[in-house]
Specification:
This protein has ten helices and 15 strands. The chain is elongated, with a radius of gyration of 22 Å. The chain is of the alpha+beta class. The strands form five sheets. It has a five-stranded mixed beta sheet with strand order 1-6-13-14-15. A four-stranded antiparallel beta sheet has the order 3-5-11-7, with no helix packed on it. Strands 2-12 form a two-stranded antiparallel ribbon.
C-alpha cells in the first residue's frame, strides 16, 4: 500500500504532459494523505501564500475558520477555462457518449451528419455546465511578489496569509499546480471527463506565470465557505502600506490564534524587493 500511495502521489504531482496531450490527474478518496506524502517528497510546496484585502470578509474567514472557494467563472482573467476541442471523434465515439436528451434529437444514422456538425456546440455546453460546479481557492508559492501585493492585497494595504499545506490537507483534498501556456489546450472530454475539467481550471496564459499558482479544487462540493483547521494558518504578513491604526487591522490582530506569527513587510532601501521582520502575537 505504501508504494501504491507513493506512485499515485508521483503521478498527481509531477506527471503533467505538454500542451495538446492529456494532463494526468488522480482522484482518490484518500487524497488528503496523498497531499501530505507529496509535501514530504517536496513535489508539493510545504508552505503556500494567499493575498487579501484587509476587510470584513477577511475578518469573517479568520474568525469562523474557513477559506472562500470561488466559482471558477468568477475570476478576473477572461481567458480562464478557455480550451480547444479534439476534432477527430468518430460518430460511434460521439454516440456512445451522447447524453440522452441529445440522442433524442439525433435518433438514427440518418442524422449522423447533422450530429457531427452540432457536436462541438453540444460538447462545449456540457463542459461549461460541469465547470460551473467547480469551486477553486488560489494560492501562490511567493509572499514577496510586488505585482501580487499590488493586484490582490489592495496596493500593499492588505495582508498575505501563510498556510501550512500538510495541515490544510486535513480539510482540503485536491491540489493542483497551475500550468501556463501560449495557446489553449486541446481537451479530450469524451474519454477523460474529470481530468478535462481540472485541466481547464488549472491552465492559464504565460503572462500569469510570475504568480506560480497552486489551486485547491472542489469538484463535487459547490459550497463557497470551506472550513479549515486554523492550525494551518502559520503567519500573517502585513502589507507595507497597511493602516496599523485602523479598526479592521486591530480586529484582525485580536482575532488571530496565539500561535500565528505576525510578519511586517518592509520595502528594501537597496533594491525593488520586500524584506520582513516579525514577532509573535
Amino acid at each position: 500500500m505504501g508504494f501504491f500511495l507513493y506512485l499515485c502521489t508521483h503521478i498527481l504531482c509531477t506527471c503533467i504532459e505538454k500542451r495538446n496531450t492529456l494532463y494526468i490527474f488522480v482522484s482518490m478518496y484518500n487524497t488528503h494523505e496523498l497531499i501530505k506524502i507529496g509535501v514530504a517528497r517536496k513535489d508539493i510546496p510545504s508552505t503556500l501564500f494567499k493575498y487579501y484585502r484587509l476587510d470584513e470578509n477577511l475578518l469573517h474567514s479568520i474568525r469562523e475558520g474557513y477559506l472562500w472557494f470561488n466559482s471558477f467563472e468568477g475570476y478576473n482573467d477572461p481567458y480562464e477555462g478557455k480550451f480547444n476541442l479534439r476534432n477527430d471523434y468518430t460518430i460511434s465515439e460521439i454516440r456512445r457518449w451522447l447524453p440522452t436528451e441529445y440522442g433524442l434529437l439525433f435518433p438514427s444514422p440518418d442524422t449522423d451528419e447533422l450530429l457531427k456538425k452540432n457536436f462541438p456546440k453540444i460538447l462545449r455546453s456540457e463542459i461549461r455546465r460541469k465547470a460551473k460546479e467547480i469551486r477553486v481557492c488560489c494560492f501562490s508559492t511567493k509572499w514577496n511578489d510586488l505585482l501580487m501585493w499590488a493586484h490582490y492585497a489592495d496596493s500593499y494595504k492588505g495582508v498575505c496569509l501563510v498556510f501550512d499545506v500538510a495541515e490544510l490537507a486535513d480539510s482540503l483534498s485536491y491540489i493542483q499546480k497551475v500550468h501556463y501556456e501560449e495557446e489553449f489546450d486541446v481537451v479530450d472530454y469524451l474519454h477523460n471527463q474529470q481530468e478535462t475539467i481540472v485541466q481547464m481550471v488549472c491552465t492559464k496564459a504565460k503572462e500569469w506565470e510570475y504568480e506560480d499558482e497552486y489551486r485547491f479544487i472542489n469538484t463535487n462540493n459547490t459550497a463557497h465557505k470551506v472550513p479549515i483547521k486554523m492550525s494551518a494558518l502559520r503567519a500573517v504578513i502585513i502589507g507595507c502600506k497597511c493602516n496599523k491604526r485602523g479598526k479592521i487591522y486591530k480586529e484582525l490582530i485580536a482575532s488571530l490564534p496565539a500561535s500565528v506569527e505576525i510578519i511586517y513587510s518592509i520595502p528594501s532601501v537597496k533594491a525593488y524587493k520586500l524584506c520582513k521582520r516579525s514577532h509573535k502575537v
